[in-house]
Amino acid sequence: MIAPSLLASDFGELRRTVRRINGWGVDRIHIDVMDGHFVPNITFGPQMIASIRKATKLPFETHLMIENPHRYIKEFVDAGSDIVIVHCETGREVMKSIGLIRRFGARAGVAINPETRFAAAQHYIQRVDTLLIMGVHPGFGGQKFIQGSLQKIRQARERADKTGSDALIAVDGGIDEHTGRQAVAAGAQELVIGTALFGASDVHRFVKNLKKTYGAGLRQ
Ligand code: DX5
Ligand code: ZN
Predict the structure, then answer these.
(1) Is residue 26 a contact partner of residue 3, using CB atoms and an 8 Å limit?
(2) pLDDT band at residue 220 under the 50/70/90 scheme
(3) Cross-strand partners of 110
(4) Separation of 173 CA from ligand 2 center, angstroms?
(5) Is the beta carbon of 135 within 6 A of some atom in ligand 1?
(6) Which of these CATH numbers, 1.10.150.40, 3.20.20.70, 2.40.30.20, 3.30.460.80, describes 2-215?
(7) Which is the catalytic residue, given 32, 35, 129, 202?
(8) What is the reported pTM?
(9) Shortest CA distance to 192 belongs to which of 118, 138, 116, 155?
(10) Domain residue spans in the chain?
(11) pLDDT tens, 130-182?
(12) Shortest CA distance to 191 belongs to which of 153, 140, 164?
């Protein structure tokens, strides 16, 4: 699966961008919410998500890089998020967030930062629909992929297979054709792509090539 990250697009054109994405042949839209506390950057909130919801039928995957995410789950689901992802580094309230996401009718995910050991997130694998492995330190697009994340993808894949979990293993940050291929070989099933996708000279060809090259490797 491919999920374009809107973070790499022009925020003044969001609705038009989402309409354009409809023709790209991608699987979901990744929406990065940042609060200036959990990460040193600020993006947007539920109102913005609600205002682009009608522009597409593609699922919205909302990646919450905010402190105390449990306080805002209802707002983000009501705004039209189909999948809501919270960070395992947000502390004791992660299970509460997962419960709320489900209760309000969305699918739940947990994200894990590069400096966090896989052991801190492994027990969520049977409780979530998506495990999102960060390929960069969250906060900004356009960073270089941290190679150590590949090992974490392998660990996640192994753990999911071992426990019979059908959680989707996703990777976010620093993904281009090269690192995307590495991530898929390590067991990733979803690639979140910002800079490389929005910067592609021919986005249709980019998506088509990715799907063709990786199709055989995808374990879905
Ligand atoms: C980083 C975000 C990512 C980011 C990926 O904090 O979570 O979704 O937009 O962008 P690229 O592909 O540019 O690394
Ligand atoms: Zn993200």
Answers:
(1) yes
(2) very low
(3) 86, 131
(4) 7
(5) no
(6) 3.20.20.70
(7) 32
(8) 0.96
(9) 138
(10) 2-215
(11) 999 999 999 999 999 999 999 999 999 999 999 999 999 999 999 999 999 99
(12) 153
Give the residue carrying structure tokens 């205002």. Answer: 51
User: Which atom of ligand 1 is closest in space to residue 175's alpha carbon?
Assistant: 12
